[in-house]
Structure prediction request, 383 residues.
Amino acid sequence: MKRTVGLALLALFSAGMVFAEVKAKVEGYAGLKINEMTHSRNEIDGDVQTDKDNVSWGYGDKKNIKVVGTLEAENEKKDMGLVFNIKTNGTEIGIGDEAKVWAKLGPAKFQFGRIREKTLRGSSVDWKLRDIPGVKLEDDVFAMFNPKMGMAVSAGSSEGFFAGLALDAGDENGIQTEDMLKNIHAGIGYTNGGLFGVKAAYKGNAAEDHYGRIELGASVFAVQNNTIELGVKIPLAKDNADGYVNIIGAVIGKAGQLDYKGHIYADIGRETGKSGSAAVKPSFGFDFGAEYALEAFSVGATGKYGIAFMNDSGNGMECSYMSNSMGILAYVKKPFSGGYLMAGIGDECTLTSESEETDGAGKIKEDSVRNQFFIPVGIQFKL
Prediction:
């Protein structure tokens, strides 16, 4: 990678004057978990065997300070350049989200290295520190081209058409050429001004009996200050091993001083249960975020709810599983030039229930509850 960046800089200087910009972003997050509680109950044929609580009164969590630096450079004609991103958490330093060289030839753009091509990506907003863990993000709506070490070729037009493909050679150890070609990611899209957009993509998979997935997406921009999206992912694998379909709807928008976003989703998966037989495992849920700007600060909340269940049978067993998970985070945000400081309170809870009935051995039922209360504090700013 160092050699690639050095050659790119040499090429840029040879092509003409280099315009370079260095950016830095600092993100810090720390937290305190208080009264994390788990409760478990075990029954056999209706007789309670165990019924107990475990409580952890408090400990630090999610201590994370991240500094990201980005160098962006391009030649005078703005038809070739580089993006080099590094990050550190204070003890380790490494390549960040992007480290690439790029060049334009007519309407086509060629990129090499670690790439994040976002043209087709879902536009759902990542609120980072203010999101409760587990909410859906942009790639859950429609995935970007994201080779870890590879290339991407794309072309767009003023009429709103876009097409591209990417090849990923994996990490620095590389992969076999046949597998790299099987991992191809290709997509097309069309946007009609401020009215609507449609897109489709295929993401390959080199693993045996796994054939990748098809993605379909649509966006509506006609509602003022709103973007409404629909994303569909169809996994392709032998015996539907990767599931059947993932459907998600998303909205992001603004009304006066209020910013908001939300998702509603249905994932129809497939999983091997306790009986040893595969069964359909559906899960449904939603998440949301809302933030209102006051004169000196903002107040907001993000939350989520999800339910998943499965019934499987085989080898003389009848099994069932259900899980409910929910959470909410309320916070106060103080903006300042280039960033913000936030502090909040949150709670997450998961309830699970499992049962299995074996021929001649009775019915076993296990219920559990896990709940944790937490206090996050975070800061994010750009230099």
Notes: The chain is about 5% helix and 70% strand. The chain has a mean pLDDT of 87.
